[in-house]
Amino acid sequence: MTKTIVVKIGTSSLTQPETGQLALSTIATLTETLCYLRHQGHNVILVSSGAVGVGCARLGLTERPKAIALKQAVAAVGQGRLMRIYDDLFSTLEQPIAQVLLTRADLVQRSRYLNAYNTFQELLGLGVIPVVNENDTVAVEELKFGDNDTLSALVASLVEADWLFLLTDVDRLYSADPRTVPDARPISLISNMKELAELQIQTGGQGSQWGTGGMVTKISAARIAIAAGVRTVITQGRFPRNIEKIIQGEAIGTHFQPQPEPTSARKRWIAYGLVPTGKLYLDDGAINAILQAGKSLLAAGIKAVEGEFGNQEAVQLCDRHGNEIARGLVNYNSEDLQKICGCHSRDIAGILGYAGAETVIHRDNLVLI
Ligand SMILES: Nc1ncnc2c1ncn2[C@@H]1O[C@H](COP(=O)(O)OP(=O)(O)O)[C@@H](O)[C@H]1O
Ligand SMILES: N[C@@H](CCC(=O)OP(=O)(O)O)C(=O)O
């Protein structure tokens, strides 16, 4: 049966740690593996990091630039080279590929989100392997994916993939960073996110010298993907052939089991496509109503409002400590919400001078995180 498989490879796997030069044998084996999967009839999407790393190697820079403008310039140099290498290798195996460079803004607007979906469908229908990266050269700080783990999970969610492989420089997830904690315990399976929270995994710093985000972003990527019904695997990038073995059932890497009832596409867009612009702090009654009874959010349950946002923008719903429990689209802008928070719905018209919506966030526009 045709499966849709998204494979994300990180800079740490694409380059040699000592020199920063490309790990050619890894890239070649990855190419062969993805072509094999295509021949098996599967849809394949590659999310490849490496623009900054390859750009640095090309320009003789020995560390990842911190200044944004320089990083964006370096990415422009590296992305072209990276695609050249992929195109040479895939073309040798007669596999067409396409470059898809996305920015966060492409997924925020619903019409652009759907447009991205349609483009992926067309490419997959044509038998092409899209090679995706963040459009680092034009991405602005406020509106960035920031790391390709998140980007790959959003792509997997967008296309409703069956598998997401996060290829990295460790063989799986451990209870703590195995580089600094030698007796860290390997983890093979995470059945749900509650189990993950109970494991209290330590993720240390921001990852390897060239990587972005380390394990933290892989775990949050897995969270996004499994909510969309995508089985997610963290495994070693140096052995791309393991992807075939894993699909055939071998227990390699760390598997995150998909949620049995995936969140609907529109709610996934609200939760992860949009960028929240404010926070609402709720009282215990409102939290219970949302979590236990699946109710809408009323003004009476809001203790405080943070940030500036317009009507129909996405906000985070938090408990008193600021822990996020849900996200949703608000029916009032922040200015009006400041005036009516804590009030009964019947008093809203009198306070604001117009009869607005009865709910602050309707349950159809509210997603538990
Ligand atoms: N709990 C953990 N289990 C496994 N690896 C971890 C953990 N915490 C931190 N890490 C680190 O995360 C790194 C991988 O992240 P990163 O460097 O961003 O890779 P990539 O370039 O593949 O995205 C590993 O090299 C490892 O040292
Ligand atoms: N878009 C950036 C990669 C960002 C990123 O997440 O890197 P990595 O942690 O190596 O997957 C680039 O191409 O260099």
From TrEMBL:
GO cellular component, one term: cytosol
Any one biological process term the GO annotation gives: L-proline biosynthetic process
Pfam families reported in the protein's UniProt record: AA_kinase (PF00696), PUA (PF01472)
Keyword Transferase listed: yes
Binding site for ATP: K8, T168, D169, T212, G213, G214, M215, V216, T217, K218
Enzyme Commission no: 2.7.2.11
Keywords from the UniProt entry: Amino-acid biosynthesis, ATP-binding, Cytoplasm, Kinase, Nucleotide-binding, Proline biosynthesis, Transferase
Reaction(s) catalysed (UniProt annotation): L-glutamate + ATP = L-glutamyl 5-phosphate + ADP
Compartment(s) where it occurs, according to its Swiss-Prot or TrEMBL record: Cytoplasm
Pathway listed: Amino-acid biosynthesis; L-proline biosynthesis; L-glutamate 5-semialdehyde from L-glutamate: step 1/2
Binding residue positions for substrate: S49, D136, N148
Molecular function GO terms recorded: ATP binding; glutamate 5-kinase activity; RNA binding
Start and end residues of each PUA domain: 278-361
Class of enzymatic activity (EC top level): transferase
Domain of life of the native organism: Bacteria
Keyword Lyase: no
Family: Belongs to the glutamate 5-kinase family.
Function: Catalyzes the transfer of a phosphate group to glutamate to form L-glutamate 5-phosphate.
NCBIfam families the UniProt entry points to: proB (TIGR01027)
Protein name: Glutamate 5-kinase
Annotated gene: proB
